[in-house]
Design goal:
It is a single chain. This protein is about 45% helix and about 20% strand. It is an alpha/beta fold and about 325 residues long. The structure holds alpha-D-tagatopyranose. The site of alpha-D-tagatopyranose has 14 residues, from α6 and α8. Pfam families: Peripla_BP_4.
Length: about 325
């Protein structure tokens, strides 16, 4: 079965339409709306969703905005709702701004499954599937503290306030530092708007302001890639320690080049697959699991080439 699963994963990952067996009026139709089209985390999520949809005979459509932005995600959701799928898998790009369009979907009895991020309205989302981000942020704090010898100035670079996942990572990081790492001097959070170039600019400015900066935690893929690029360009390899969330190809290269000391890899493919499973259960009137936390793996230069770690690295 594993081989078949792998085959399906490869097929689906080849961008093949994961439309499942045949067409037919009784086929369950699901749409996945990503937080950001083309980004490795959400493309790996789509890959897992397509593989599971193919196995379950579900017609899966994948769409997403060109930027992680609720003003771009909202018209996509409105268009999807007009098409009337049986279920909607979505990573909402803002805890407040996405409530209105998702309320429309709910009122049309479209089954909503939240993958990765959530909205503040607890009545939206029959299932919430994501990494335990509070735990992930605390793990990042412990890993960074170990890297800097438990002392020195540390900075967090995140995307925007109001994104549930990275907000939880920040909270977990801050609570861990306050409770268990008295030698760290926490400089606070700066926001990259999920833009690699802005994350680099923030990192460069932070290095100019605090020449003795010891470490940085970047809470997501683009923030980490941008901050790592700045460390590379300023020759701070290994001098300023860095822990990043996610494990996209550019991030893994930075890890192998010694720019970044640890990455927290999520399981976006697993999130996507479980999202399809929960959508099918909801459409069929079967039991749905309200909250499904997925695993995370701390990836370092020492373990990155191990088979069990290679399989959690995100697809290009
Ligand atoms: O870290 C992931 C995701 O979990 C988060 O919600 C937004 O950023 C990413 O998509 C990576 O870019």
């Amino acid at each position: 079965m594993a081989a078949l699963g792998a085959t399906l994963l490869l097929t689906a990952c080849g961008g093949a339409d994961g439309g499942g067996a045949g067409g037919g009026g009784d086929q369950i139709r699901v749409t996945l709306v990503q937080g950001l089209a083309g980004e490795e985390f959400y493309e790996t999520m789509a890959c897992g969703a397509r593989a599971r949809a193919a196995e379950l005979g579900v017609a899966l459509d994948v769409q997403g905005p060109q930027k992680f932005d609720p003003t771009l995600q909202t018209p996509i959701v409105n268009s999807v709702v007009a098409g009337g799928p049986d279920a909607l898998l979505i990573a909402p790009t803002d805890v407040k701004a996405m409530i209105a369009p998702l309320t429309q979907a709910k009122q049309q009895n479209i089954k909503i499954i939240l993958v990765d991020t959530v909205v503040e309205d607890q009545s939206i989302g029959l299932s919430r599937i994501s990494t335990d981000n509070l735990k992930g942020g605390a793990a990042a704090a412990r890993a960074l503290s170990e890297q800097v010898g438990g002392k020195g100035k540390v900075l967090v670079i995140s995307t925007d306030p109001g994104v549930s996942t990275v907000d939880a990572r920040i909270k977990g990081f801050e609570e861990e530092v306050a409770a268990n790492h008295p030698g760290l001097s926490y400089l606070g959070v700066q926001y990259s708007h999920n833009d690699v170039g802005e994350a680099s600019r923030i990192m460069n400015a932070a290095l100019a302001k605090d020449a003795d900066l010891a470490g940085v935690f970047a809470t997501n893929l683009n923030s980490a890639t941008g901050a790592g690029t700045a460390l590379q360009q300023t020759g701070k390899l290994g001098k300023v320690k860095m822990v990043g969330f996610d494990a996209g190809p550019a991030q893994v290269e930075q890890l192998k080049d010694g720019v970044v000391q640890a990455l927290i890899a999520q399981l976006p493919g697993d999130i996507g697959a479980k999202g399809v499973e929960q959508a099918v259960a909801a459409v069929r009137g079967q039991q749905v699991t309200p909250s499904i936390p997925t695993d995370a793996t701390i990836v370092t230069a020492a373990n990155v080439d191990r088979p069990e770690v290679r399989k959690v690295l995100y697809k290009a």
